[in-house]
Amino acid sequence: MEFDIFSNLATGFSAAFTLQNIGFALLGCLLGTLIGVLPGIGPIPAIAMLLPITFQLEPLSALIMLAGLYYGAQYGGSTTSILVNIPGEASSIVTCIDGHQMARQGRAGSALAVAALGSFFAGCVGTIFIAAFGPPLAAFAQQFNSPDYFSLMVLGLTTAVVLAHGSVIKAVAMVLIGLLFGLIGTDINSGLQRYTFGISAIWEGIDFLPLVIGMFGVVEIIRNIESRELPRALIGTKLRDVWPTKQDFHDSWRAVLRGTGLGSILGILPGGGAVLAAFAAYTVEKKIAKDPSRFGKGAIEGVAGPESANNAAAQTSFIPLLTLGLPSNAVMALMMGAMIIQGIQPGASVMTKSPELFWGMVASMWIGNLMLLVLNLPLIGVWVKLLSVPYRLLYPAILMFCIIGVYSINTNVEQLIIMAIFAAFGYVLYKFGCEPAPMVLGFILGPLMEENLRRTLVLSRGDPMVLLERPISAALLLMSLFVVALIVLPQFRKTREEAFQE
Amino acid sequence: MVRVKSPQDFGAGAVFIAIGVAGIALGSDLPMGTAGRMGAGYFPMILSSLIILIGLVTGARGLSIEGPPIDRFHLRPLLFILGTIAISGYLLNWTGLLITTVIVTVLAALARPKANLGEATLLGLGIGLFAIGVFVYALNQPLPAWWGR
After folding, report:
1. In this prediction, does ipTM exceed 0.85?
2. Is the Cβ pair A453, B54 closer than 8 Å?
3. Shortest distance, CA A221 to any CA of chain B (angstroms)
């Protein structure tokens, strides 16, 4: 296999630099920013809603657009965090703390520019990270066998559980429920129907779009209506000085570097991703600052660090998906679903079988980041205007787009009923304090995990010890155990709670 | 008398146990096979048992550790939104995208207490025309636009 980063990137850029693909990258970025700006709709339902549109596109164009949507949402989220103290999206919650304070002091322009430039820098580094670590990791993954894959999924799901919000034990249950739901449909091995009750719409398994859109998109709408009108704290933000001062640059460049490094690493971890990276970066900045009391009162490092980190992580969280076939969070699970629909099995083979696709996507990430930088700053005024649209006018449109998205899968009315059922299910679980994200991960991995377990046990004639006899598998399981041990240790538990509290 | 200290945990535990029991009961006719030759029921049974186990632990925590109460269930938004979704597919087949959007928008507006139906109708027309432009004409999605199929 060719390990030369630059010739690979050249392949990618030539694949991505077609008028069509650039158009889809632009569309993805614009829609993503829009979604990031609008409160009450996060990237997960948005990507799910727009997935059916991409069915008829070429695989590369489809993935480019969806990826653009994802990191566009990151940018959009930070804009509203800074300007109006409403995080459009979970990974920019910490940006509110200092970003909005800066805006109140009339330094909104600086905060926005530092966020955008930091994100762009992080995006560039993230792209190089993928290009550099993707191939060796994929080569390593070639040695993986069924037991190793099974253990890898155990590790991925364990980490996802530990890093999920809220109660760990509920997250474990949600993962298991997801795995179980993933098995509904025809068993590929025996051809037997499992839990289908003769309903033809689920013979081939429950479609993941009605599940995801129901549990995220629709539940979100109901929750927002319940809590009456969303608070609007539009302050008179002056946007005169969009360019940061020399002092701002001086104060923030180290935070950008640290955030990028931290984000790139945390993005790769299974279960990691943009949200975790942003929280971690903020904590680090606060810890190492000479004067931590400035934080919460408009410290520019508190914007630069987390914003760089969430973008870097958004980028590098593609690595486990593209090289190991393991989605590290719910957004990546959606990307995995999109790839499967396009007939691509995510994993090490993507790089060898369709290098233009892999490298084209990597290249498009950089193009997308550049687009966002160019688009975002001049368009800030437009995005802020959008925020003044009251939610009562917004949610019927979101609901209708959810419906259209699910109906477009195969114009099957039953899919909408399934969506309503999962919305009800998600609503009840939300009231009981359960997060839906781990369930989606389990749902996507269910069939894969069963198949790898089956193959493992066939090879070993039913002896599960084989999982500990193979070195790769044993190492992965040991790491899972380590992760579990972490959660039991009181000290780590305390830090985790603090991190999610802020 | 046992007292529920954390209603959220207790409720979640009950849901988990119900799912696990359903998984075992409804999958009881699936062949288990052996570890070396896993049948269609093997992995579902393992998962269902684990879910019940965790359900029991979560439920027990709900009885022993203090926790937050459950927020009130607001039936009006829940029923209106879910009902709208459930009928929307049939409406789409019958009346097409434009009329469906208007009806969906009005029903969705009714999910909130003080709904302005005139405004909702106009909004529905706007969203409907926009959706037809984007999804039917620009993106060629398989949707009936002006009237059903």
Report:
1. yes
2. no
3. 9
